[in-house]
UniProtKB/TrEMBL annotation:
One of its GO terms (cellular component) is cytosol. Coiled coil: none annotated. Signal peptide: none annotated. It comes from the Bacteria. InterPro entries: Inosine/uridine_hydrolase_dom, IUNH, Ribo_hydro-like. One of its GO terms (biological process) is purine nucleoside catabolic process. Transmembrane segments: none annotated. Keywords: Glycosidase, Hydrolase. Residues 4-298 form the Inosine/uridine-preferring nucleoside hydrolase domain. It comes from Actinocatenispora rupis. Gene3D superfamilies: Ribonucleoside hydrolase-like (3.90.245.10). This is Nucleoside hydrolase.
Length: 311
């Protein structure tokens, strides 16, 4: 069993990642934390509650996390995910987030059962960095951390070189990627090549499963965004991170020490991979997914949205 804590900026793909994890027979979602990013931290928490409730996980606690990055003004990706983070489909949930912050919740769970939890981070890494500051032993207390973020050998999506989850809090990302935990990074190199196409979207749209109907509602605005950029369908960013959490064998990986560029006027938020031969970098390597079995990821997502007996 994989005991997962998801920390996300619950926009469209974070929500679909939650549904993928929720449906997987080997996963138990223990808690969710929200963070600024696609929308504000409060809206992201409300969205996380909404999607957990759609999945039938009405008892999973959700904690509101950081409302802003560590060292720069907040910037929300509402153009891609809509003002509410779910393309206009967000509803006020019946239950409230818990009183603790997302970082406090993460530290409390990790301390209570060392080695038990896998952290799946699908948003900016502010909460995880705060948790590392609260509990420096966190890397040893977590089983592993899977992060969606970064761009290694492909362009960024916020700047020419920076991906959103890293660019929205570069200082936090640098802390997490160098913390010494067992970290798997799932960057745009993998997620932009893991595309949800017209055929699968039609299947989801035709399904009567409440999870598929919810997915169709939240995907409309997101798909319009990609259509406006001449793309049919959408990438599976956070869903790929969720899929590689439950089935690491779907990915191809390199192990490389990473830093985040923090000072460049044009390069802030860029990943710097130390691929020198024979160098002895002072930061431990991170496992970076350079690609994934696209059909395998899509199958896991569809299993989270469609009734097992659906055609
Ligand atoms: C990442 O940024 C967010 O907009 C998505 O939810 C995903 O986590 C992709 O760059
Ligand atoms: Ca996200």
């Amino acid at each position: 069993m994989i005991d997962v804590i998801q920390d996300g900026d619950h926009g469209v793909d974070d929500a679909l990642a939650t549904l993928l994890l929720a449906a997987h027979p080997d996963v138990r979602i223990a808690a969710v934390g929200s963070v600024h990013g696609n929308t504000g931290a409060e809206s992201a928490a409300a969205n996380a509650i909404q999607v957990l409730d759609v999945a039938g996980l009405t008892a999973v606690p959700v904690a509101v996390g950081a409302r802003r990055p560590l060292a720069q003004p907040v910037h929300l990706s509402t153009l891609v995910h809509g003002e509410d983070g779910l393309g206009g489909a967000a509803q006020t949930p019946d239950r409230r987030p818990v009183d603790a912050s997302a970082a406090e919740q993460l530290v409390r769970l990790a301390r209570a059962e060392p080695g038990r939890y896998t952290l799946v981070a699908t948003g900016p890494l502010t909460n995880v960095a705060l948790a590392l500051l609260l509990e420096p032993a966190l890397p040893r207390l977590l089983d592993r951390i899977v992060v969606m973020g970064g761009a290694l050998d492909v362009p960024g999506n916020i700047t020419p070189v920076a991906e959103a989850n890293i660019a929205h809090d570069p200082e936090a990302a640098d802390l997490v990627l160098t913390c010494g935990a067992d970290v798997t990074l799932v960057p745009l190199d993998t997620t932009m090549a893991t595309w949800l196409g017209r055929t699968e979207l039609a299947r989801i749209a035709a399904a009567s499963d409440p999870r598929a109907r919810f997915a169709t509602r939240i995907l409309a605005h997101y798909l319009d965004f990609y259509a406006a950029h001449g793309r049919d369908g959408c990438p599976l960013h956070d869903e790929s991170a969720a899929a590689l959490t439950v089935s690491p064998g779907l990915g191809r990986y390199v192990e490389v020490p990473l830093r985040v560029e923090l000072r460049g006027a044009d390069t802030r938020g860029m990943l710097v991979a130390d691929r020198r031969v024979g160098a002895t970098p002072d930061t431990p390597p991170v496992r970076v997914a350079t690609g994934a079995d696209r059909d395998g990821v899509v199958d896991l997502l569809l299993a989270g949205l469609l009734d097992r007996d659906a055609p």
